[in-house]
Amino acid sequence: MGMVSQEAIKQLEVLMEEVEQPLKTTFQNVHNGYLAETLVRFLKAREWNVTKAHKMLVDCLNWRVQNEIDNILAKPILPTNFYRAVRDSQLLGVSGYSREGLPVFAIGAGLSTYDKASVHYYVQSHIQINEYRDRVLLPSASKKYGRPITTCVKVLDMTGLKLSALNQIKLLTLITTIDDLNYPEKTNTYYIVNVPYIFSACWKVVKPLLQERTRKKVQVLQGCGRDELLKIMDYASLPHFCKREGSGSSRNSESGSENCFSLDHPFHQQLYNYIKQQSLICEPVEPIKQGSFHVDVPEPPADRTELAKTIQSEFNKFGNANRLSDSLDGLRINGA
């Protein structure tokens, strides 16, 4: 890291020493003892501009305080059967760790429907997984490997991606906005697998619109990506949809203990039990309340809004082309 970078870190650290309570407390929950690494994340997100990184970080801390994010891991989604429905429609889990100790997050981007609960539950669930990653998984991995581990890798399965994904654009924009503004630079690499034509066509248009920093993180792999992923992780850590070429992703493709999306998978069992335990510690007298934990979502940045519009436009073009093709096929059949 160069002298300019070190100086930027020092400047931002001095600025952060001046924040008052309760921002100081929530900042401790954000950096978890890895102060320099956290400052670097926000500096990278703002192209090493100290003033902009400071504003971003303070805005993040204010968002955390205003929305009680420090307490979100004590707010279980109840009842369990309802949470299972959330998990079955928001396909996300941890399949293992890379050889460098980074958690491997598996995401069923193509088959997630987000249709079993309100937006608030999906946002709550997403933030809880973020917080569990940052407060439990990453500190544990850092201790195990004897060095700071502050990022993860993500494997996105595009199996089943359809035009109906347009219905999810608004929710996905909310979630990515939360991540961009409050959990920047937490993903080391995005691996995209089981890519259908609709994604390939859209990716050609979207890729140039991404920031160079983001583009470098994205790797679109052939097929299920197994061979490439085995270069960075053991077979046991592969998401279930990467273990067999052509197997694709399915909510029922493996048993609960193998399917990392399932509530029966060890990761989700540990996460859910942790949240229930935290709720008993924080609220030992009052009964646990049911209902979603509402979180204010900041307005998405202009580039994020434009990106969403571009994706929607490309999907619509693809749909119109398909409908035109179907109409022509119908004319040919009728005219035969």
Automatic annotation (TrEMBL):
Residue stretches making up the CRAL-TRIO domain: 79-239
Name under which the protein is recorded: CRAL-TRIO domain-containing protein
Species of provenance: Rhamnella rubrinervis
